[in-house]
Structure formats: C-alpha cells, structure tokens
C-alpha cells in the first residue's frame, strides 16, 4: 500500500478475500464511509479510485481465468460490468468539468 491518497497499491495478498478486505479498509481510512445495507460500511470512492479498482480486479480475474479456464462466464459478466463502470465514470467526469 502507499500513502499517496490518489494511488491505491495492494501487493502480496494470498487470496481475493484478503485483498478485498484490505482494499475496503484502506478506502475507508482514506475517504470515510457511509452506512449500507445492514449498516455495513460502504467506502466512499473517487472516480480515480473506481478506475484503479476496476483495473486491479480485471488483472485478478485474468489471473484466475488462467488457473480456472472453466470460469469464462465470469469474464462475460465482468466485461459488462466494466463497460458500465467506464460509462458512469466518464459521465461523472463530464459533469465535474462543466
């Protein structure tokens, strides 16, 4: 991890669950959180955070598909989600520029 609040770096996690927990904790530490369903903390994120997280989870999915090639359906689902992420972050960026 890094102290730069604009760059999220996470290395050396043994599994996806530990990585996700570390990412969530770091975002809450940097940006704060809001209460979600069942009063669970939902980290606040910047547009840059969302793009960095999407890129990282794309890398993780790619690694997983090498180890588990039968998981191809997840790739299709992720591509659709990634398209929505890209559209929404672009739309938000456009709103912020105006």
What does this structure look like?
This protein has 98 residues and is mostly helical. The chain folds into 2 domains: 1-45, no CATH class; 46-98. The protein is built from 3 helices and 2 strands. The chain has helices at residues 16-31, 47-67, 72-97, and strands at residues 33-35, 41-43. Strands 1-2 form a two-stranded antiparallel ribbon. A hairpin with a 5-residue loop joins strand 1 and strand 2 (41-43). Helix 2 packs antiparallel against helix 3 (72-97). The chain is globular and about 40 Å long.
Return the string of H and E elements: HEEHH
Q: What is the number of beta strands?
A: 2
The fraction of residues assigned to DSSP E strands is 5-15%
Average pLDDT score:
82
Query: Would you identify the regions where 5 or more consecutive residues have pLDDT less than 50?
Result: none
Count of DSSP helices?
Answer: 3
| Distance between the ends | 33 Å
Outline, from the CA principal axes?
globular
Helix content estimate: 55-70%
Total domain count: 2
Radius of gyration: 15 Å
Task: Summarize the helices and strands and which ones pair or pack.
Elements: H1 16-31, E1 33-35, E2 41-43, H2 47-67, H3 72-97
Antiparallel strand pairs: 1-2
Helix pairs in contact: 2-3
What keywords describe this structure?
98 residues, mainly alpha, 2 domains, two-stranded antiparallel sheet, 3 helices, 2 strands, 6% strand, globular
